[in-house]
Amino acid sequence: MEIRYPYLIIIIIILFIVYYLFFRKNTSKFLKGIKITNTSFLKDTDYFKYKMKKYNFYKRLIFILFIICFICSSILIMRLSSVKTIKNNEHNLDIFLCMDVSSSVDAFNLDLIDDYKEMIKNFHNKRLGISIFNSSSIVLSPLTEDSDYINDVLNKITKSIVLNDSFKSNSYIDDNYLYLSSYIYSGTLEGNSIRGSSLIGDGLASCINNFSDDDFKSTKIIILSTDNNLEGNPIVLLEEAARISKSKNIMVYGIGTNVIDNENKKEFINAVKVTDGKYYDYSDSSISSIIEDIYSFSKTSLNKHDETRKIDIPEIPFIILCISLIGIFILRKKVS
Fold it and tell me: What's the CATH number for 93-300?
């Protein structure tokens, strides 16, 4: 333990001396009232001696409690603190779900979203975001710790996919339908007639830019889900986007569909390897494997450094001060 402002001890001592010398009243000197003569007989009685003895005892006790209050107050003013060394094992983890929403992966996305909802439960207090792409890319959720909001966005993606598939067999339309049916298409089909669809490299490159370049402490991860079936002319190829990701220390975990062809799968695997990430064929256990691998990687990349902090410990002197003040008030009743 130590005192943060030890120089205050000198000031407090000076103030106490000044008070004692100049402001403390001489209680032995008669100041006011009428003197009573012939009190010697009264002072010699046992009752009077008992009362004076009791009075002097309480007075000394009050003085002792006053000194204790003074000392405790001084300690509180000087801020008694302890020095603690804290092992800093916390590490920020930022994860973006980068989802291909072209029609060829609708069924894949419906299954994947259910697994993502379960995955979110394992990343409590971690920041997650959602980016979707087809011909172009949009952000449905920036990085946030609000897991309820992330789940709500995933639910809307599911409803959008289901409603667009069901529209083929019914013509039910209302305002809510119009909003949800266009939820994954508004903004993701810009330039579709010219550039084509399923522009995976552009989708990944756009998602990379959603991370802050000034944040050097966080582990940054993108979970890219796609069949890697390119149907257009991207500005950035998947391999080029992977190199950009590597240059920004962003690791990519890839999830491919069960029907991805060998050539596309090979390209996908090579791209994620560039970022030091891993590729997974989608299955019931693939999300669990991703969670384990992310946690394993984040633990090895922890910035483990000890941090020394001064923590105030006012509890004990404050409790003693309160007890002493209560004691003074009680004893004053005895001597008044």
Answer: 3.40.50.410
**pTM (2 decimals)?**
0.63
Query: How confident is the model over 79-134, as pLDDT tens digits?
Result: 878 877 665 555 578 999 999 999 889 999 999 999 999 888 888 778 999 999 99
Nearest to 205 by CA among 136, 143, 258: 136
Domain ranges of the chain: 1-16+45-84+310-336, 93-300
Is residue 206 within 8 Å of residue 192, measured between CB atoms? no
**C-alpha closest to that of 56 among 27, 14, 85, 96:** 27
SS3 letters across the chain: CEECCCCHHHHHHHHHHHHHHHHCCCCCCCCCCCCCCCCHHHHCCHHHHHHHHHHHHHHHHHHHHHHHHHHHHHHHHHCEEEEEEEEECCCCEEEEEEEECCHHHHHHHHHHHHHHHHHHHHHCCCEEEEEEECCCEEEEEEEECCHHHHHHHHHHHHHHHHHHHHCCCCCCCCHHHHHHHCCCCCCCCCCHHHHEECCHHHHHHHHHCCCCCCCCCCEEEEEEEECCCCEECCCCCHHHHHHHHHHCCEEEEEEECCCCCHHHHHHHHHHHHHCCCCEEECCCCHHHHHHHHHHHHHHHCCCCEEEEEEEECCHHHHHHHHHHHHHHHHHHHHHC
Angle among Cα 41, 46, 50 to the nearest 5 degrees reads 120
Cβ neighbours around 59 below 10 Å, total: 14
